[in-house]
Amino acid sequence: MERQFVSQLGHNSPVQQVFLASDKQLRPNRNGNLYLQVELSDRSGMVQARQWNASEEDYKAFENGDYVYVDGATQLFQGNVQLIATRIRRAREDEVDEADYMTLESTTINEMRTRFVEIMRGIKSAPVARLAAAFLDDEAFMDKFCRAPAGMKNHHAYQGGLLDHVLSLAELSLLVAPRYPNLDGDKLLLGVFLHDAAKVDELTYERDIAYSDEGQLLGHMAMALTMVDQKAAEAVKKDGMPLPDKLLVEIKHMIISHHGKYEYGSAKLPMTLEAVALHHLDNLDAKMASFTQLMKDCPNVDSPWTQYFSQIGRKLYKGEVGQK
User: Fold this and answer.
1) Is position 220 within any domain?
2) Are 191 and 278 in contact (CB under 8 A)?
């Protein structure tokens, strides 16, 4: 059977193929019978799967991050496609083509990295450039930065997603900053670079995406403050020149305020022009990515409208079918 990617799965389609498994749970239904719930993904997206009347053996047959071969069929549930599996087993090596599970190719990631480094090396302010260089020159950090996702599910939730997101913000910053003379474009670029930088350690992402213990306990904003202090110390040690305390405070403020509201996890509300700009650009890029994915995953392929999404309180208009 020719592979169908998650984004191509429709209602009542038979499925016999390999997916990447994550977030598996063995749960009881209302009658106390156990069922297996697991997220299945490929490079196009993710689908929820359930296996009814499951056992402990079914649960232990594979681990999160394994490639699994699934027999089953799809159905619509509350407007979304879900997969009802009759069997899930760990896939054999000869059944797996890892390219089917990589959203971004390595050549694309390398091109994005080159462009991003070019932008950051263009910073004119010496203190800002020195702090940026402390991160850019750290090969181990940059390797993780270019592989990490930007999140678990909401947006850019794939390997290379963090770089994809941050490069988009950097390009937006180059367009926006010149429009506002009182806005410091160099500080904004550094805030763009570092606002989610600690996701390299907050998340694990060798295959499936999950929280590290440190990420679960502290979160990326708190972790990033430590990273800034460490890299600032490295920059000072390298050339013997101090970094302005005010600069470090303003960069840290951008990090802890970039979610924009207390209820969204910000420790502070944005209080500088650069922090305000970062929050709104970050929100714009995240929303565009997540809404695009919702449209892409919508099972209403013959309608210009998506189904109603309770998480955003609306339907989305995709445009006339067959038109861009």
Assistant:
1) yes
2) yes
Q: How many domains does the chain have?
A: 2
Confirm if 61 and 71 have CB atoms less than 8 A apart.
Answer: no
Domain of residue 22 covers: 6-99
Map tokens 């270019």 to a residue: 146
Measured CA distances, 245 to 186, 194, 249 (Å) = 16, 17, 6
Q: Are the beta carbons of 248 and 132 closer than 8 angstroms? A: no
299 domain residue, yes or no: no
Residue 164, SS3? helix
Q: Any idea what the CATH number is for the domain that residue 30 is in?
A: 2.40.50.140
Residue 118: exposure state from Cβ atoms within 10 A (0-12, 13-18, ≥19): exposed
Could you give the 3-state DSSP secondary structure of residue 143?
A: helix
| Rg, Å, the chain Cα set | 22
**Alpha helix stretches (DSSP H) within the chain:** 56-59, 106-121, 126-136, 139-147, 161-176, 185-194, 199-202, 213-218, 220-239, 245-257, 273-297
Taking CA atoms, 108 is separated from 161, 322, 323, in Å, by 12, 28, 27
State the pLDDT at residue 227: 98
**In Å, what is the CA distance from 1 to each residue of 4, 16, 125?**
9, 7, 57
Q: Are 206 and 154 in contact (CB under 8 A)?
A: no
The label of the residue with tokens 């210009």 reads 304
Instruction: Look at residues 196, 192, 234 and name the one whose alpha carbon lies nearest to residue 215.
Output: 196
User: Is 302 part of any domain?
Assistant: no
Q: CA 277 to CA 253: how far, in whole Å?
A: 13
Give per-residue pLDDT as tens, 281-318: 999 999 999 999 888 877 777 789 988 888 899 999 99
Give pLDDT tens digits for 117-155: 999 999 999 999 999 999 999 999 999 999 999 988 778
Same domain, 12 and 47: yes
| Whole-number Å distance between alpha carbons of 296 and 279 | 26
Q: Which two tokens stand for residue 72?
A: 């089953």
Taking Cα atoms as reference points, which of 159, 215, 190 lies closest to residue 277?
190
